[in-house]
Amino acid sequence: MTAQPEIFDRALLRRRKARAALCMAKHAFLLEHVVADLADRLSIMQRRFEIGLDLGAHGTLLSGHVLRTGKIGRMVCAAPIPELCGLADVACIVCDEEALPLAPASLDLVISALSLQLVNDLPGTLVQIRRALKPDGLFLAAMLGGRSLEQLRDAFAKAEIATTGGLSPRVAPFADVRELGQLLQRAGFALPVADADVLEVTYPSAHGLVADLRGMGVSNMLRERRRATMRRATLEAAMAGYARDFGHTGRVPATFEIVTLTGWAPHASQQQPLRPGSARGSLKAAIDGS
Q1: Distance between CA atoms of residues 41 and 197, nearest Å
Q2: Domain 10-268 CATH assignment equals 3.40.50.150
Q3: Predicted local confidence at residue 275, as pLDDT
Q4: Across 176-287, where does the E strand assignment appear?
């Protein structure tokens, strides 16, 4: 078996999340946008779930929205650090998203907002989630997709090459929507769907974006990052290049691609694909008949 590469420094992630928990509300615009969308999606489901898990919880933000939909009886939060559990009014367990202490077929719903994009073994985590769901249980999650922070990635790359003659990873390589859809299938989910929405926000300068990323606790988590403090010249070149290459009308844009994953634990009642060769008519006949 091939070991899963460790792209993200999970210990560093926990430390930064702990610091960010103190000022999370000031930088939660992206999380609030995602949480509202997930709650809307859940609200139109034509069924009710008895027990759900908020995976990678940010206090009560997501679980509170989910409970207000009336589609869930009880919520449990799971967070990688106790500081985020301490914000919650519901039962909470401290665990890493890569090692879930969940009994098989114990949950009707697993929902997650902007936490799984920083998991090293995402295929393994998805398999654990599917096993923890009861038959016909729902998995609903939002993650950052591959287009996220494309301007920042470009600005830092050009600045480092210009000021140091080299290049080190600064922005996480988020997965593509097609890749995420395939991972759902590989993990054994039925009726898998991955869809993407691009959100563009603007700042007076790129410094505001960097401050928000730090406030969210999601600044550079890459294990292969350069350990030395970034040179002032590199940061200034990156900020200037960002404004020069992407700025307009005195502001700079930042792109966030939100990929929403939906999958169901298999159950006999679900719609099944037809067997190959079982069609009773041809595509040509259908087209000609129209």
Answers
A1: 14
A2: yes
A3: 61
A4: 190-203, 252-264
* Lowest-pLDDT range of 42-56, 79-93, 101-115, 129-143: 79-93
CB-based contacts of 53, cutoff 8 Å, min separation 6: 75, 76, 77, 78, 102, 107, 109, 110, 111, 132
Tens-digit pLDDT profile for residues 53-77: 999 998 888 999 999 999 999 999 9
The four Cα atoms 1, 194, 33, 118 give a dihedral, to 10 degrees, of 10
* Contacting residues for 252 by C-beta, under 8 A, at least 6 apart: 151, 202, 203, 204, 205, 206, 209, 242, 243, 246
Residue ranges with strand state E in the chain: 49-55, 72-79, 91-94, 107-113, 133-144, 190-203, 252-264
Does residue 214 sit in helix, strand or coil?
Answer: helix
Average pLDDT in the chain: 86
Given its phi and psi angles, is residue 59 left (phi above 0), alpha (psi -120 to 50 degrees) or beta?
A: left
* Torsion sign, CA atoms 180, 149, 96, 1: positive
Identify the CA nearest to 228 among candidates 170, 277, 281, 149: 170
Considering the entire predicted model, what is its pTM?
Answer: 0.86
Which residues contact residue 180 at a Cβ distance below 8 angstroms, ignoring those fewer than 6 apart? 143, 145, 194, 259, 261
Q: Which tokens hold the place of 277?
A: 């060769």
User: How do residues 248-277 score in pLDDT, each as one tens digit?
Assistant: 888 999 999 999 999 999 988 877 655 655
Range 190-212 burial, b when 16+ CB lie within 10 A, else e: bebebebeeeebebebbeebbeb
Residue entry with tokens 């169901």: 264
pLDDT of residue 1: 44
Q: How far apart are the C-alpha atoms of 96 and 107, rounded to whole Å?
A: 18
Taking the domains of the chain in order of start, what are their residue ranges?
Answer: 10-268
Distance from C-alpha of 80 to C-alpha of 36, rounded to nearest angstrom = 22
